[in-house]
Amino acid sequence: MSTYLKAASLGSIPHGFSTAAELDVADILPGAPLVRLKQVHSSAVFAVTHADEALPEGDALVTDRPGLALGIVTADCAPVLLADPAAGVIGAAHAGWRGALGEVLENTVAAMVSLGAEPANIVAAIGPTIAQASYEVDEGFRNAFEEEDTRFFVSGRPGHCQFDLPAYVAHRLQAAGVGLVEDLGEDTYAQPGRFFSYRRATHLSQPTNGRQISIVGLPA
Question: Of the candidates 158, 167, 209, 208, which has an alpha carbon nearest to the alpha carbon of residue 187?
């Protein structure tokens, strides 16, 4: 069995966040097909009704169909797994800064609500993500955000600051009405060998194709 991380907030909902070690859907929901998208840092969300449907490019999936597993891949961006256990609705979102700023999380919550979820009953877990201490950005990046988002930045070296992506993601989820948000607090950049990090690999001139996978499913 693969080694993977779980979120206490998701309770008995089948789910897992991989480390750099592989994670198979059979470890999460045996016998379930895994549904994935071609991720493009967008705000597009798709409701899945069956495993073999053709899905366009996008960055989040939701379903209320038992026996399906949803998966997204990341390597510094925030993987977010969501569930309304009472309604039997789940979601999986890829939230980099572009997607989070572009409302991929709000769109995911809205898509879950369209399937019968209640925002206050939704729990969301933020998996391994680049942390503020590791995420240096320039002033141009900062200027893409609203003034009210100042609290997610701290000053760094001249002309730069540090961005708190997981806190920003949590803020967007809470603003969308999500009842409980859990951040696993795992910094992908700062843990070589345990997690893939696109930014770390770029800085070290290493291959950048490694990804973690995060999976959530509904039992049949």
Answer: 167
Dist CA 110 CA 108 (whole Å): 5
d(CA 84, CA 76): 26
First-to-last C-alpha distance (Å) of the chain: 21
Q: DSSP string spanning 98-124?
A: HHHHTTHHHHHHHHHHHTT--GGG-EE
Task: Tell which residue, 95, 99, 119, 97, has the closest CA to residue 109.
Answer: 119
pLDDT digits (tens, 9 = 90+) for 99-109: 999 999 999 99
C-alpha–C-alpha distance, residues 179 and 10, integer Å: 12
CA distance 62 to 55: 12
Domain boundaries, the chain: 4-217
Instruction: Using a cut of 0.70, tell me whether the model's pTM lies above it.
Output: yes
Q: Backbone phi, then psi, for 170, in 5-degree steps?
A: -60, -40
CATH 3.40.220.10 is the classification of domain 4-217: no
Pairing of strands 60-63, 78-84: unpaired
SS3 content of the chain, % helix, strand, coil (to 5): 25, 30, 45
In the sheet that holds 153-155, the strands lie side by side as: 136-138, 160-163, 153-155
